[in-house]
Structure formats: structure tokens, C-alpha cells
């Protein structure tokens, strides 16, 4: 059975530079509970939400105004049996121009419907 990685796409009026900068301002859109540098290649940062979710990310690809990719180094959900979910997966933000809009495609490579966290992650 083929599984599909979680993917969603939006189009916005902002420029590719504005979208790129917003992605890298992780505290501004995900959580202020971030420790570490979120806007430089090869840097690592930690996210946590109470005792529910913790993860450690490494920025492995960064092409200005075009793409950002994180590698999930560590992850913990208090609501899943499989504590390895997300570990080793990649989160990609791909920016492109579509007519007069900027398109952002978010792909979580390895986040598949079979994961216990999929519905919660999908809604988030």
C-alpha cells in the first residue's frame, strides 16, 4: 500500500521574500516556546508545548525566497503509543510564484495517515 506524505498548499499576496522571512520566524507562527536559532542553515531548535509535544529540528536546507527544510531529530507526543513518530522525517516549505500570488507548499515527508498523530497534526 502506498502512503502519502502530508501536503497542503496556500497562496498569499505577500512576496516570496516576505513568506520566506515569515517561515523562519517560527516563534511568530508556531509557538513562542522555541529555544534556539530558527533562521540559519545547520542550526537546531527545540519546540515544546506543555507536556504534550516536544521536538528538536535541524535546518538542513535553506534557499532564500524559495525553500526551507527541517529534519526532525527528536520528537515526543504524550498521546501516541509509538514514540518514534516524526523522528527522521523532514518538513519542507516550498515557495513559488503563481501568477500574481506567492504559493507556499508545506510537505511533511514521512507524516502519513497511518501515524497515530496524523489527525491531530492535520488539524493543527
Q: Which bin fits the share of residues in helices?
A: 10-25%
Order of strands across the main sheet: 1-7-6-5-4-3-2
Strand-pairing-aware structural class: alpha+beta
Could you tell me the mean pLDDT? 88
Proportion of strand residues = over 45%
> So how many helices?
3
CATH domain class: Alpha Beta
What does this structure look like?
The protein is an alpha+beta fold. It has a single domain, classed as START domain (Alpha-D-Glucose-1,6-Bisphosphate, Chain A, domain 4, 2-Layer Sandwich), CATH 3.30.530. 15% of the residues lie in helices and 45% in strands. It contains three helices and seven strands, in the order E-H-H-E-E-E-E-E-E-H. A seven-stranded antiparallel β-sheet has the order 1-7-6-5-4-3-2. Strand 6 and strand 7 form a beta hairpin. The longest helix has 9 residues.
How would you summarize this macromolecular structure in one to three sentences?
The protein has 124 residues and is an alpha+beta fold. It is built from 3 helices and 7 strands; from the N terminus they run βααββββββα.
Amino acid at each position: 500500500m502506498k502512503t502519502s506524505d502530508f501536503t497542503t498548499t496556500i497562496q498569499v499576496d505577500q512576496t516570496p521574500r516576505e513568506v520566506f522571512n515569515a517561515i523562519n520566524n517560527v516563534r511568530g507562527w508556531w509557538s513562542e516556546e522555541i529555544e534556539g536559532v530558527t533562521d540559519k542553515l545547520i542550526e537546531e531548535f527545540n519546540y515544546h508545548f506543555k507536556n504534550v509535544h516536544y521536538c528538536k529540528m535541524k535546518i538542513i536546507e535553506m534557499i532564500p525566497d524559495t525553500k526551507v527544510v527541517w529534519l526532525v531529530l527528536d520528537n515526543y507526543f504524550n498521546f501516541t503509543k509509538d514514540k518514534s513518530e516524526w523522528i527522521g522525517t523532514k518538513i519542507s516549505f516550498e515557495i513559488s510564484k503563481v501568477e500574481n500570488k506567492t504559493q507556499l507548499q508545506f510537505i511533511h515527508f514521512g507524516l502519513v495517515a497511518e501515524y497515530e498523530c496524523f489527525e491531530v497534526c492535520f488539524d493543527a
